[in-house]
Amino acid sequence: MDYPKDLLEKFYRQMLRIRLCEEAFVAPILAGEVRCPCHLYSGEEAVAVGVCAALTARDYVFGNHRSHGHYLAKGGSMPEMAAEIFCRETGCSRGRGGSMHLIAPEVGMMGAAPIVAGTISLALGAALAAAIRKDGCVAVTFFGDGATGEGVLYESMNFAALRRLPIIFVCENNYYATHMPVRECRVDRPLYEIAGPFGIESCQEDGNDVLAVYEAGRAAVEKCRSGEGPVFLEFLTYRYRGHVGPDDNIQGSHTDIRPPEEIERWRLNDPILRLEKYLRERQIMGEDETSAVRDEIAREVAAAHDFARRSPSPRSEELDRYVFA
Amino acid sequence: MSSRRVLSYSLAINEALHQMMAADPAVFLIGQGVKSPWYVGNTAQGLRERFGDDRVIDTPVSENAITGAAVGAALAGMRPVVVHPRMDFMFYAFDPIINEAANWYYMNGGRLSVPVVFWGIINRGGEQAAQHSQSLHGMFAQVPGLKVVMPATPYDAKGLMVAAIRDPNPVVFIDDRWLYRREEPVPEELYAVEIGRARVARAGRDVTIVASSFLVQEALQAAALLVPEGIEAEVIDLRTIKPLDKETILTSVEKTGRLVIADGGWRTGGVAAEVSALVAERAFASLQAPPARVTLPDCPAPASAVLEQAYYRTGEDIAAAVRHTLRSGAGG
C-alpha cells in the first residue's frame, strides 16, 4: 500500500508529539510540580494516532484515565493540555479536572474519565445520537484490557449491535490492568473474541504498527458510516511507564511488576522507531528531515510547558463555579 | 376553557413528553419498558406511534449502559429522558448518573453540559418487599451537580417534566405510582414549573409541614384532621428536593415557629434531616419547639401488608407529630 507523504509525515509528527510531550512530564512529576495522577501513554502512540487519523473533527472520541494521546491525536491543544496537567485556569478543563479529564469538544474529544469502562456507554450514547440524527458521525471509545472485566462493556456491545450503532470499541491491550497481568485477569483466549457472541465484527491488530492501526480504523469507520457498525478492534501494545506516573514497574524495584526483558523487547518494537525505519527505507523521510521534525516538536513541547507554568491557578473564590450550567 | 381541562398525574407526564418531543427533535425517550404499560403505566402512551422507534427506544435490561448512553447522547447534543420504571434498579446506573453526568460539567471546567433527565418511578406497596419499593431521592440530593424534582400534583408533574427536559443540567425526576390516578385541571398548553421553587399548598399560622411527592397529599389530610382541634397547619410542597427553596421554608417557619417534615425516604442523612438542619441554622430564634421528622424508619421495606402498614407514613402520623410539636417547647 502506498501512502501519500503528508499522511505518513502526519503519523510521524503526531506520534512524536505525544511521546515528547509525555516524557516531558516526567521531570515535573518527580519534582512535585505536577501532582495530579498522570497515566503516561508512551509506547502506545500508534493506536491513538492511527485510529484518530481515520476520523474527522465531527466524529466523537471518549477517553479513559490514559488519554493524553487520544486528546492530542484528536486535535486537542497541547498548551491547554499541559496547563490542565499543571491544574491551571488556562487548562482545557480550567484546572478542575487534571490529567484524567481532558476535553476538546470543538474537535470531537468529548472527554475522558478514570472510572474503568465508565465512558464506554457515553460513546454508545454519542453513537445513538448520531443514529437518531442520521448525521453520519462515528463514536470511538478507547479502553484498556482491564475494562474487559467490567459488565457495562458487554451491555454496551449488546445494545450497539442490536441497533447497529456507529461505534468502534477500541481495546488497547497493553497486557496489564494496573499491576495485574492480563493472563491473571482472564482465561487465555484472544481478547477480541469477546465481541463475536454479540454479532460484532472484531479483529486483533499490531498496535505498534501505525499503518496497520490506520487500516483497521479506516475500515471500521467506513463500516460504521455505511450502517454496518459496530466494530470491535483489539490492538496489542505496551506502555513503557507503569500504570501511573513515571515509574516503570520493573521487577525487583519497589513496584516489582514487569520483567526487564519484557520492557526491552517492547522497546525494540517501538512504534515511532518502526515508522522511522519505514520512512527511511522507502526514502520518504531521511534522518535530516526526521531530526528537524523532532527539534520542531521539542520546541512546541517546551512552549506548552512554559505556557502551563506561566498560567495562573484557578481562584479559590471560584471553587464552586461549574457545578451547574 | 383549556385551564379547566382535567388530567391525571400520569397523563400529565405523558402530555409533557408529547409536547416536548414535538417541540424539539433532540428530545427522545429511552428505557426499559417504554412500550409496555406494565412498566410505565400510560405515561408513554402514543409516543412510539407518533415519534417512531428512533426516538422512543425500548431497551434490554441494561441499566448501566442505557443510562450511560443517555448521558453520552446528551453530551452529543440530544435531550434524552431515560426512564427507570423501578427506582431500585437505578443503583445499577449510579456510575453514569453520579460519576459521569453529575461531575462532567464541573470536572471539565464548564466545557460540556449534560442536559439529561433521569426519570425514576417509585413503585412500592403491594407486599413487593425491599427491592421493589425504594426511593433514592435523598441519595441523589447529596450529589453536587444533580437537580432532583418530585412533583406531587398533575400540574407540577407536567410542568416539572418540561422544566427538567429544558434544563441544561442533569435532572433526576422522581414520581410515585401512588399518584398516577390523581386528577386536577392541567393547562393544555406547554408550560414549565420552575425548578428550585416550592409551593405553599395550604396556608396556616400554627405549624409548618414540609412535604414532597405523595406525602404532600398526606400532609394536606393531616391539616384537615387538625382543623377541628383549632390547629391551622401550613403545608409546603417542596416540588424540588435540590436545590431546596430555602426562602419559602424559612419564611413559613418564621411565621409559625414550628416545623414538621414529612419525607418518603429513610431517616438517617435524609431530606428531612437536611430541612431540619437548615431551619436550625437559619431560623433557630423563630423555633418554639424542636423540629419533628416523619420519615421511613431506618429499615428496609417489608413484604407483609401488616408490616407495610407499620412502615409507610400517613396523614395520621403527620397529624400526631404536629400535636406533639404543639405540646412541646417554649410556646406549647
Written overview of the protein:
The complex is a heterodimer of chains A (325) and B (332). With 325 residues, chain A is an alpha/beta fold. Helix content of chain A is 42%, strand content 11%. Chain A starts with a helix and ends in a 15-residue tail after the last helix. In chain B, helix 1 (9-23) packs parallel to helix 7, helix 4 (63-75) runs parallel beside helix 5 and helix 9 crosses helix 10. Chain B has twelve helices and 14 strands. Chain B has two domains: 2-185, 3-Layer(aba) Sandwich (Rossmann fold), CATH 3.40.50.970; 199-327, Rossmann fold. Chain B is of the alpha/beta class and 332 residues long. At the A-B interface, helix 6 and helix 7 of A face helix 4 and helix 5 of B.
The coarse overall form of chain A would be globular
Give me the CATH architecture of chain A, please: 3-Layer(aba) Sandwich
Tally of separate helices of chain B: 12
- Give the helices and strands of chain A as they follow along the chain: HHHEHHEHEHEEEHEHEHHH
Work out the count of structural domains of chain B.
2
Largest sheet strand order of chain A: 2-1-3-4-8-7
- Give the quaternary arrangement of the chains: heterodimer
Average pLDDT confidence of chain A is 96
* Total number of helices of chain A: 12
Structural class of chain B: alpha/beta
Instruction: Give the name of the CATH superfamily of chain A.
Output: Thiamin diphosphate (ThDP)-binding fold, Pyr/PP domains
